[in-house]
Every structure is written in structure tokens, then in C-alpha cells.
């Protein structure tokens, strides 16, 4: 039986993540209130961000930037601006 969460990103009930994918308090918050479809959307954005900004996950500043973008995207409803990326209509 899939668990359901009220997804803060989708603003509706949706299938929850199977396990906590991110460490710490933020990870718990994501697990409790972000759905699988919303997480999948974030992963697409994250990949584009990492590629565009040539982020190195070994660099703490880069990880911090990605984390703040993730919080903005998932919890504050802010879309991530990626240079040269035009969403398909």
C-alpha cells in the first residue's frame, strides 16, 4: 500500500516517497510533505541546474545553493530560472 501525503508542491494528496531521500530535518520535511511526482519534477530541475551551473556536489557551497533552490522550488512555489532553458508549451 502506497503512502499518501498532502503535497506542499502540488497542493493536493498524492503518493508519498517510499523513504527519506534527503538527510536531516529538511529530509524529514520532504518525506512528510512532498509527493513522488513533485520530487520527480525537482530531480529534473536539479539535473538542469547542476549541468547549467556546472555544480560540483563535493563543493559545500554548490550543495548549499542546490538545497536553497530545492526549498524554493518545493515549498515556496518558486520556479527555477535556468539560463537558456525554455519550457515546452
TrEMBL record:
GO terms for molecular function: iron ion binding. It comes from Haemophilus paracuniculus. InterPro entries: Fe_traffick_prot_YggX, Fe_traffick_prot_YggX_sf. Gene3D superfamilies: Fe(II) trafficking protein YggX. Keywords: Iron. This is Probable Fe(2+)-trafficking protein. The lineage of its organism: Bacteria, Pseudomonadati, Pseudomonadota, Gammaproteobacteria, Pasteurellales. Belongs to the Fe(2+)-trafficking protein family. The keyword Membrane does not apply.
Amino acid at each position: 500500500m502506497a503512502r499518501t501525503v498532502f503535497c506542499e508542491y502540488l497542493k493536493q494528496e498524492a503518493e508519498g516517497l517510499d523513504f527519506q531521500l534527503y538527510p536531516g530535518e529538511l529530509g524529514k520535511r520532504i518525506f512528510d510533505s512532498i509527493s513522488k511526482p513533485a520530487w520527480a519534477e525537482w530531480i529534473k530541475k536539479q539535473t538542469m541546474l547542476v549541468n547549467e551551473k556546472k555544480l560540483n556536489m563535493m563543493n559545500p557551497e554548490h550543495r548549499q545553493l542546490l538545497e536553497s533552490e530545492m526549498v524554493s522550488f518545493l515549498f515556496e512555489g518558486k520556479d527555477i530560472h535556468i539560463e537558456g532553458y525554455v519550457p515546452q508549451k
